[in-house]
Amino acid sequence: MKILAVGDIVGKPGCTMIRNFLHKVKKDLEVDLCIANGENAAVGNGMTRSIAYELFEQGIDVITMGNHLWNKKEIFSLFKEEKAIIRPANYPPGTPGRGSIILDVNDKKVAVLNISGRIFMENLDCPFRVIEKELKVIAGITNVIIVDFHAEATSEKLAMGWYLDGKVSAIFGTHTHVQTADERILPKGTGYITDIGMTGPYDSILGVKKEIIINRFITHLPEKFQIADGPSQFNGIVFEIDELTGKTTNVNRIIINEKF
Ligand SMILES: [Fe+2]
Ligand SMILES: [Fe+2]
Fold it and tell me: Whose CB among 10, 38, 148, 153 lies 3.0–4.6 Å from 63's, allowing a Cys bridge?
């Protein structure tokens, strides 16, 4: 089966890219399941009900989140009504929401897990120990397991990739909004990429108007972030997975850019 993961969808430009390109990408690449990181989809980050249902309507099956999870209060009620929106599993026990979902895809069970790094991020529970615990439960249900590791540091992402080699089907990084060109299949069959990138404005700094960020670096004065205008990009990855073994057999990085 083929599983598409879409990089952090940023604001209206990101949602427009989903509307304009997702259907074609899914059809052309014969995608069976689509996962997208939605932590920046709403204006001011986070997720709203209307955006979540629009993304589902457009063909996204699972929305993963990250450190901007709580920016919109609607997430609390969304977690109650929608299992297909998941958050990093390593928030403290008792936190609203869940860190994984198991879905039926072509008569096969597929698990999707979301986990957060800790380097230059919130000081959550240990992602290595938490995922090990989660996998003990999931391993009895399916061998097709996909992980969105929402993390900043390349070293932490690589460490998680190697740690999970042979334990999950594929692991992709999100959060940095910059796609890395290191997609590969690790020796024990786990598909890996450090970061799948961003779906949003191209002439920007991580989706935000570049002038605002440059000014902030120079002056250190706070300024409200505004989503950039102009052409947008669609970033992601497709993992082809052997349903019997649960191993990745092919990795295909995706870049669509309105500018080129
Ligand atoms: Fe993000
Ligand atoms: Fe993030």
Answer: 38
